[in-house]
Sequence to fold (829 residues):
Amino acid sequence: MLEDFLPLVTKPARYINNEIHSVHKDLATVRTKVCLFFPDTYEVGMSHLGLRILYQVLNSREDTACERVFSPWTDYEEKLRASGRPLTSLESNLPLASFDIIGVTLQYELSYSNILVGLELGRIPVRSVDRTDDHPIVIAGGPCAVNPMPLSAFIDAFFIGEAEEALHELVELRQKHPGRKEFLAALAAFDGFYVPALGAKPVKRRVIKDLESAVWPSRPLIPLLKPVHDRVTVEVARGCIRGCRFCQAGIIYRPYRERSPERVTNLLQESIQCTGFDELSLASLSAGDYSSIQPLMEDLVSRYRASRVSISLPSLRIGTLTPEMIRAVAGVRKSGFTLAPEAGTERLRCVINKPLAEQELLDAAAVIFSSGWSVLKLYFMIGMPTETDEDLDGIIRLVTNIFAVGKRSSRRPIQINVSVSTFVPKPHTPFQWFGQATRDEIKAKQAYLDRGLRKRGIALKPHHAETSVLEGAFARGDAAIGRVIEEAVRLGCRFDGWTECFDFKKWIEAFRICGLDPAQYASRSFGIDEQLPWQFVQTGVTQEFLKREYNRAIKAEVTPNCRAKCEACGMACKDGGRETFGKPAKTFAPAPIVQPSMTASPSGETLVTKIRMRYTKIDRLRFLSHLDLMTLVQRAAVRAHIPLAFSQGFNPHPKIAFGPALPVGMESETEYLDMETDAGIDLLSTTKALNNTLPQGMRILEMRVVPRKAASLSGSIERYAYAVDIPPAFVRDLEKRVQEFLSRPAVIVEKEGKQKDIRPCIEAIAVTLSEGPALLSVTLIDQGQIKPRIQDVIEQLLGITKEQFLLFRAKRTGLYCKEGGRWRDPMDV
Fold:
């Protein structure tokens, strides 16, 4: 971590490490150092389940250290380049070039530019041909690896399949073959590995046969910064029985395999206890097809209702959605509900092999709205093979009908959010031979839907046509695409999946310079017998099956699911066509319900007490935002088994209240929070338990019981003490400048376009001079609606900019409430 410029970047908590359950090994004692590189931001990468699994598997080896790195945001990259320092790992701050293996996750085509940027920042030659024995081996895996050609010039080896299967093998081969050429040759001899330098050969995907015994992170990393998916996730099944013809995941994750509900419940219980998350997710490509979904849901809702842990099913197929399941999910906290019809007409849903009658959709919507939801998200896809204007009209009609159902079924105003993505033909799917709609066609379809769905309570959110075209070009690209990616990075392309960073003009220029056109990749239709660039990768599903599905799609014929009938896709499943397909042998017996422990009065009323805590926030944790700090404390309390009192209402939350927010980057020796909990709680043991669960940089110094009706911290604290280190460059005549500053009749600052005089808020400023930095002790007081900020005072005093102040080391040393005309410590109320 490079603390000297962290105050100057957005979201510095992305780079500070210090998470609970992160692994820090002595690198001098291990034989192999692996860095997992997720080419997107920290909050995206830390949502990725696969990263957590690989991290656990590799760090379970005594001879191996596994660390992480995420793509630095553009401002951090600028600071890195200006400083001349390399990109380093989170755990040990080790430059990427010092690792033995860099493991790159290929989750999304529009992250390809970030891979090249990360290698360059890590001082690793971008092109594999330029690397020597002194450089790490760069290995990439993930769903995008099934077409490795676009990145073949930059990646030393691709892994095709499920990586848990081969990690130990990979590490042991690296230890056996320290030379680059020998190691790559050894990899190429094993199933699952494609080494571009050794030429294309048939590569067979590696598959874990038994999901029940597959490795799972027993102590998952707890992000400090809120990730995109902020919850405990357990994979209940891998693969899919349905065979939607546009879906790449449904092909490349075959065969279908389930975890037993006993194993799922145990994993969830372990994860919730050691993380403190208040949401759990049952992950699979189609959670409703999980054979024990109904009893599992009922058990989980009963188990966690009292703890206010909500349950998420992110991939519910409408045809598997029962009223009982909807009502079970409604038993905890409600957010939005999501349905994915994909197409607007039953004909087109048969083309994509997602048969679904419109009445089924309307019935499901009625149950959802009547069960208490007021927000429904609908996913559709446009530009699919054989699509006509009638199919677009079908989307408009279906959304309008669902909205009408919602108005009849709900007692509250409803909102329908319609997300419309563009069909992208993906390798190894029955639709890989179809071309993608052109950019102009996509925009015309989006405009048509926009005109038809302009209605209060309905919001249309189409995906960018340009990003879809680029995604299609990369997904179906060959090795020539690599030159385009390299040129685009030179032109400044980064974070192409982020709207604020994506620059289509630069990509078009990169294609032009390379003499290529994205449409020739994205929109081109292939002949059914044409050799495809990615065809040497063998997913296990045969070309004959894909061709058969292609022809059925043209005829709008439906292929039954794998439990109803085995279609001989090539995976050679032994139990295809049976109800037991993919199901473990165990049966489900509900586990005991866990209830939070709270003391009750003789009348049965829950007895609650309010405790006030004084705590520190120092060192790296000073870069954590106030909102993320609140989440951290709540989860630490759950891990410490502190019974929390909750608010009432539709969306209950724990009764934890904090004092005035501390600016990001500032330390404090004395912050305060109030927590309502069980009346019989022991303060000494609670302090110890909470400190054992908090990360380095935050410690509970003191706890006291305060009256439940005591004034809130945020409303009663009005006096603030700070200590600010003044760098030597600003020390000259400092005492004189302070005197002159305090003699001013007014100190005007501007905030949100309004000018305010903060001079009445400045109680005192004292100077302490020493050989190093001088120390300013500043005391500020709120005056009515004017709440002074220490940064405003220092900027005005020294005539510096906001950016300059951010580099000063500042600390809050005291907070005070006024009671009876006297300033008092908040602990003494």
User: Anything to note?
Assistant: Residues 608-710 form a domain with the Alpha-Beta Plaits fold (CATH 3.30.70.580). Residues 573 and 643 are 48 Å apart (CA to CA). The chain is about 30% helix and 20% strand.
